[in-house]
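Need the bound structure for protoporphyrin IX containing FE, inputs here:
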Amino acid sequence: MKKVLFLNLVAVLVITTTCVTSCKKNETATVAPTLYDSLGGTTMVADPRGGMIEKGRLGIRTVVDSTVFVIAGDTAINSYFTVLLAEVGANNLSGFQALEKSLTDFFCVATGAKKFSYSGKSMVAAHDPAQNSRMNGKADNGDFDAFVNDLVKGAQQVGLPLDLIQRVGRVVETTRTQVVQK
Ligand code: HEM
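Answer from helper R.:
Posting the output first, comments after.
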């Protein structure tokens, strides 16, 4: 009887110790930084356009803007953007502003931001001319590669470090099968 009691006591001690150890582990566990964190994260900084903005979002918006300008000058793929370019040529920036917001939201969410959401079309719908009249034709793998090259150039132009460009590149790659429809 004494032996059984002793064994029970040992079992209780072991279970208690395990729980305390694992609880402690949970409390002190650090969450791995997301790509969004590495791009600047949630630290609030002054937005050059006024007000305050998360540093990560400002970084992403800066890369998006730079990339859209590279794409606009890239004859390999700029013919897909005829609607947008005609608007901009006529001093109408509404489509450009909407695209800038959509792309910025999309990349914020895709890199792990918590405070933003993407409310644009799905990647399939956005790149299907039948569902998006602003997409002038279906893109193939070569177009996708050209888009990624332009994104790399756009990111380099605003000084994003190479390791971060590569990580953004990996996120972009996950959309290839949805964007490429030819
Ligand atoms: C590489 C990955 C790509 C991503 C993550 C991406 C993302 C997006 C997003 C978020 C939109 C906005 C959708 C909306 O607001 O509803 C969009 C629109 C568009 N995308 Fe892409 N895209 C990619 C590749 C491409 C490629 C390869 C092409 C063509 C070569 C392309 C051409 C377009 C066009 C023409 C639009 C409409 C622009 C406008 O509003 O005038 N995209 N894309």
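Comments: Confidence is low (pLDDT under 50) at residues 9-22. Residues 1-30 form one domain.
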